[in-house]
Amino acid sequence: MAARTTEPAGTHEAPVPQRLLAVATRLFAERGYDRTSVQEIVEAAGVTKGALYHYFGSKDDLLHEVYARMLRLQQQRLDAVAASDAPVEERLRAAAADVVVTTIENLDDAMIFFRSMHQLSPEKFKQVRAERRRYHERFRALIEEGQRTGVFSTATPADLVVDYHFGSVHHLSTWYRADGPLTPQQVADHLADLLLRALRP
């Protein structure tokens, strides 16, 4: 995916934390996390280092927040879908499609994180793994519910089904292009349909 070369509209009018995140996301996507200095971030954001450290304790915290904001959004949406009264097949399909759409809509964040997550501090890395595990467990619970009630096949363990779908999601940043033949929703529908077909009894 081509990195952004300009800040999103309104960046310099945004509150300082959002401005720092927008600039850090652009620079991390363009140059890589390890090749971007704190000084470059604050200069591009038009703030001081003191302002950055007021909101983020370190560059490590910025990298964590780039991904955490996307994961928070996805968790909120998954929780809402999972708690609805719709049949489990509809809930799983909605959840499977939503994680694709929200990942594509935040593709820089996803690309930066999966390319640079190994550079997080051990504490932050452990925190992110716990946050991702909570999301995956809620998603897996939908599959297990369908398997218990006979809606989904039990031929494949739920853990493997989760890995199958999220393997596709995690690779989106390597091939999806905004100017390609498929919209985010079309990609989401195809991948959700593949998942449901794999679970069909």
Automatic annotation (TrEMBL):
InterPro entries: DNA-bd_HTH_TetR-type_CS, Homeodomain-like_sf, HTH-type_TetR-like_transc_reg, HTH_TetR, KstR2_TetR_C, Tet_transcr_reg_TetR-rel_C_sf
Residue ranges: DNA binding: 37-56
Entry keyword Nuclease: no
UniProt KW DNA-binding keyword: yes
Domain HTH tetR-type: 14-74
Protein's recorded name: TetR/AcrR family transcriptional regulator
Protein keywords: DNA-binding, Repressor, Transcription, Transcription regulation
